[in-house]
Amino acid sequence: MIRPSLVVIITLVASAGQATAAPDVADPPPPADQGPETTPDLTPPPAPQPAPPPPPAASAAVAGTEHLTTETYDRDQPIDLHWHILNVPGYLLEIVVMPITLAVEYTERHYIHRRVADLLSFYDGKIKISPRFKLAFGDGLGVGAAIKFPKLLSRSAKLSFGGMYRLNRDWKLDADYLQRIGFIERRALHIDGFAEHDGNARYYGIGGDTPEADRRAMLDDEQALVVGLDVFARDTYDWSGIVELGVFRQHLGPGIEPMLKPGEVPHEPLGSPGDHVELPPGFNDTSVLGHLGLGLRYDTRDTKGRPTKGSIVDGKLKARSDVAGALSGVKFEFSTQLFLSVLPDARLFVVTVGGSAAVPIFTDSEIPLNTLSILGREHRLRGYDRGRFRDYYAGWVNVEYRYPIYEYLTTGAGLDAFLFTDVASAFGEDKLTAKRVRYSTGVGFRGAHETRLVFESFVGWSPEGFQFVIGAEQKL
Amino acid sequence: MKQMTFLVMLAVSLGIAAGACAPGWKQTPHDRMFQREAVKPIPRVPERRPTSDWWDHGLQLIVRPIGRALSPGRWISGAMGGRAARDVNDLGQVPDSDWFENRISRRTMTVDEAFRGPTQTTGPAVGPLFVISGKVDGATAGFVVRDRDGITWYLKLDPPASPELSTSAEVIASRLLWMAGYHVTEIHAIDIEARRFLLDPKAKTKDRYGRKIPLTPLALDRLLRPLNTDKAGRIRVLVSRQPDGVVLGPFDYRGLDPDDANDKIPHEHRRSLRALWVFSAWLNNTDTRNQNSLDVFRPVDPAKPDGPGMIRHYLLDFGNSLGATGTGEKIAESGFEYIFDWRVIASNLFAVGLRTTRYQRLRRSPYRSVGIFEAKAFQPHDWRPTFPNPAFEECTRSDTFWAASVLARIQPDHIRAAVSAGRYHEDGATTHVVQTLLERRRKMLVYGFTGFLEIDQPRARGHVLIVDDLRAIGGLPNTGPLRYKVRWNRTRRADRELAHGTVNTTTPDRATIHDTGEASVAHAGVLGEVQIDLSSTLAALQREAGFADDPFITVELTRTRLSAQIHLRVVGDTLLPISLDR
Asked: Does the beta-carbon distance from A36 to B232 stay under 8 Å?
């Protein structure tokens, strides 16, 4: 505790013994006092002080000792070679990134970022080109672009064309058209089409207990044209939905083995003589299927990208059948996702419970592969390979603890980490037993803004090993 | 003959070795307390290329932290307590230079000086202000004007929703940093009628791609219209005068300037730059990037602007001080973590969301013109600027102590005067800022003095040794009497104790000396100034054989297990402090 008397005296010392009148710390007079043509109000506080006394002896050489002292500070500076050697790793890193320096400096100085952004947006934003990138283990690097017309027909329609090509020769083309229709309460009509070639889709056979060694590569060529209509008016809060009608074409065949794990030998091509893996329905054939879909969602999340509370209830129905009825199936899927805040500042549990069931529409018909229930990697079982389990029925419970590890100022953008455990099982072909209940656990990161998910990455572990995913499917 | 040569060589070697045993501080010329760095004029104006602010962000936030983590030098240096600063003399002071000038350390300053700071004028001349260029985009607008006297002024505005927030903070910080000794430009926070702004026909602005284009009346109108005016139609602006000389661009807080022959000390090893963190933390000036600095070439002969001259290094842009940023109020994290802080991210990751921080409980002040500026949660040791600063990272405890010794000399009245210059109009804002600064100063002094005996600036009057007790000057509670021992510091022989005693510095108005026999009693002048009269001790000592050839004494001061040694040379009837070891 500073004694009052002490404070007073310290102040006296500061002015070398001069009586120092403290300036008035009350707020300055209102600006109205300053007159119309105001020059800076530099009126000092009341009672400005006289010039201080001469500095104490410390600031000058003691009389008679000038010849022993110097006023000039001029010392040889050491080279510090040992310190430079000890800092070589840091220096090397800076040298390595030096080309980036040049690029960044050039971009900043010449506004390259704006020029590129403007180049990608023609005609006052009525045409936009968006680059696309994808990096996935097994599928390799993909690059592409989309050209968008976001303001067609008096801003009531949007059209976009896009494509992507991957280093493993997989490719995808897509086109989307959206038309808002005023007379049905601005519900939108969606027309979406795509064509995709995947030469190494994963396939393990059908059933909830297929062994890991049954992994095969499969060719999967798909084309689709779907017309959809919003179920709810555009301004409906919480509820959304779409009803779809379309045609879907699929060709399945033997694929090219993707990247192998260390020590793994290439498998026999799917469908080769002697291969015991059960072939998917419609294998080595081209199927044309009619498509009917209905999706409904009740969504009470506070934000889409980084929710902290609320829930999503999803219900989906997907029915597909060929003309002859040899391939037909309908899949019902239901899931509930709860966002449960446990601590302030967006620390929450995300609990998802769901199930799906696929049944044939016609007796004696087979359910198309893409209508079966599926588990693996981004499909609710993150420690297993993509498409690891396909069967008639599936159920899953995911528990995820999500917490922020970085916030970019107050922009709403940041990085969240999450710890997860998935428990799921696919069954139907095989009976549901405790042995067939699969689990995985892991850790991941989500880079997101409140309005959208930018990327998601995770490492999942299961008894079959690790799955490492960067930029997983951007599902909201 | 060979034997003789060997003996001579041996004798010479021993002589050299023995001479080498004498401590460096005994060698002449001795450092004076306040010195000036030796500089020579640079023949011509150096060329500077603009630096990349973006790259500086990436370098400081990502590349350098990784590089430092990988470098053994960082860890070894850390384990050793850091590398010593190089612009420090034997008495622990930083010499005056184009980087730093001892002001409050050298002499007492009046409150009037604290109020005016570096200002030489009263701001732009009365009359029209011709807008010669303007920045019409970005978070906050700003422009350049020329007044009737032809002086160029840079104008900055407050964030529209936070009147006086940024302009006041900038003025206050500039005044206090100037007192501490840094070179800052002349700035004023003033109210100007919008009608005083006239567009110069040659006024320029920049387009979307940075190309210079004419600044049109429409663009100027768009710039001025959204500004908040008072009832008299005036707007609050910060005017900053361009320093005399040729503006070269920002300096780097690391390395040397290849164009400046006088730049011999790597910037991160300058104590003045390292210890800037102390003042930045005190003022909560979180934006200490390279971009907020300025090198100006100052010709020796002002009539020959292209002639020889020196580069002066200024600190700029304190709009991120106190509770302000250039775009609005500070967010709670400001001052607690970097904008991208690996340490915090790792802590958050491994703490699985259970980590709590002091700033989570922060509440903004009740003053809109102040924002979040408080002292309760402030802890000097973990204050962080927005971007890592290479000089701050090299700061040692000795550097921090030095800065605290400067800060202690900035008295409450100085702070009040500097805050008054900020011209807050909101009731209570001035008081809040003053009280917060005082409390943050107290915390900073406690931190800065930890581990050191808080004495400074040894000097002498005749045979009376005088030191400053920084605890008293800084207003910190006394921790006990100061003990001293006087020794004859003999070269190549053991020291001989001459006297010892106690200085009771708890007496509020005087520091008295309890004489123990050999050192005579003397009254100290006033509190904060401790005097030890060594007349009788030295009178006896000067009669000793060999003292004339080895006239050095050491005064060891101790308080609560902390000690410091002052080495002095006895020159006739005067004492010459020549070194201070803490």
From this structure: yes
